[in-house]
Design goal:
heterodimer, A: about 120 residues, mainly beta, 4-stranded antiparallel β-sheet, about 0% helix, B: 5-stranded antiparallel β-sheet, about 55% strand
Chain lengths: ~120, ~110
């Protein structure tokens, strides 16, 4: 079964520390998304890539967050420095563009707690 | 800007009853509609995708309809089971933006044995 793989699954870190989350999209998918889920805000889009190029990162706090795709098999989301309000579940998702859109598949999430 | 709403936020039904979950969206332009299931502490599992040119999709006990003129989608789950207890999320996908999804707040479903 092809799946989106995310690491780490769980992370507890102290405020001010750097956090890097990694995502391996499904082989052959050319769009990659980063979402954040909190109880208050629900699911919010942070950034997305098409063919490794960043298309929209307007949902991401630029002063501390950065997202990259070093190659087609790896997407990263970095927070530096981390703050308690960044505590959330971060989901990576991937899909394949087509004339009428295609199913988007989500990873299991990276559960981040910043203390 | 697309806005997606799911009402009610929570729903409780006895086992065997049919479930009807509602999703509304503000912009019916070139969007598809995807339904997901999320179990506590887990990721999102895709249930059904309705392409923008389609009216409905079916998979087993699940049927989802899309009415772009009214800005609504409905997910029907026939003969509900306790295992159907989960949060169900709908998302509008912007096809021109690589299927970028805008999510509703979800409906938390409890099916009582």
């Amino acid at each position: 079964d092809a799946r989106v793989t995310q690491t780490p699954r769980h992370k507890v870190t102290e405020m001010g520390q750097e956090v890097t989350m990694r995502c391996q999209p499904i082989l052959g998918h050319n769009t990659v998304f980063w979402y954040r889920q909190t109880m208050m805000q629900g699911l919010e889009l942070l950034a997305y890539f098409r063919n490794r190029a960043p298309l929209d990162d307007s949902g991401m706090p630029k002063d501390r967050f950065s997202a990259e795709m070093p190659d087609a098999t790896l997407a990263t989301l970095k927070i530096q420095p981390s703050e308690p309000r960044d505590s959330a579940v971060y989901f990576c998702a991937s899909g394949r563009t087509g004339p009428d859109g295609n199913t988007i598949y989500f990873g299991e999430g990276s559960w981040l707690t910043v203390v | 800007k697309q806005e997606v709403t799911q009402i009610p936020a929570a729903l409780s039904v006895p086992e065997g009853e049919n479930l009807v979950l509602n999703c509304s969206f503000t912009d019916s332009a070139i969007y598809n509609l995807q339904w997901f299931r999320q179990d506590p502490g887990k990721g999102l599992t895709s249930l059904l995708l309705i392409q923008s040119s389609q009216r409905e999709q079916t998979s087993g006990r699940l049927n989802a309809s899309l009415d772009k003129s009214s800005g609504r989608s409905t997910l029907y789950i026939a003969a509900s089971q306790p295992g159907d207890s989960a949060t169900y999320l709908c998302a509008s996908g912007e096809v021109a933006a690589g299927n970028k999804l805008t999510f509703g707040g979800g409906t938390r479903v409890l099916v009582k044995p």
